[in-house]
Structures are given as C-alpha cells and as structure tokens.
Design goal:
about 90 residues, alpha/beta, 2 helices, about 25% helix, globular
C-alpha cells in the first residue's frame, strides 16, 4: 500500500482511540498519507464519546500488515501491540 498506519494498543480506551484519530488527521493535513488502525474493540467510554458526537468511525482495516510504516501512539510496550503488526515496521512512537 505504501501508506503509513497510525495504531495504538488492542482494545483502546478513549486516550488511545483519540490519539490514533488525531494523529492520523494531523498527518493527512500536512500531506502525509496515513490511515487509522483501531485494533480490537474500543472501550465503552470511547464508543460513548464517538457516538455522542456522531463521529464517523474510521474504516476497518483488515490487512494492517500491508502498510509499510507504523506509527504507534499511546503505547508503552509491545505486549499490547496487535499481532498483525510487525514491530520492525514501527518508524515512530508517540
């Protein structure tokens, strides 16, 4: 695909979910093609906020391993990293 994927840990809470969305939008604003990857299911608090503000969830990505670069946000270690993501492709951690 050649695109960058912004991801957090599996089953993110509001912080992880919001970080993925915000950083993806920022990258796209500065003309860096990026997609949001939300592994698993967001916690109830994230779902509540997204639904309350009628935010459209990012499209589901079934093949995150097709992306060349991974940026991790709100992640502290590899234990929570989705198994479909190759740590060797991580180019940035925020």
């Amino acid at each position: 695909m050649g695109t960058t994927i912004v991801a957090c840990y599996t089953n993110p809470d509001l912080d992880g979910f919001a970080c993925v969305i915000a950083y993806t939008e920022f990258l796209n604003t500065i003309n860096i093609e990026a997609a949001s990857y939300i592994p698993g299911k967001p916690h109830d608090e994230a779902k509540f906020i997204m639904d309350k503000f009628n935010y459209i969830y990012p499209p589901k990505i079934d093949t995150p391993d097709a992306y060349d670069e991974i940026i991790l946000v709100d992640s502290s270690d590899l234990k929570g990293l989705d198994k479909k993501l190759d740590p060797k492709n991580v180019v940035e951690i925020i």
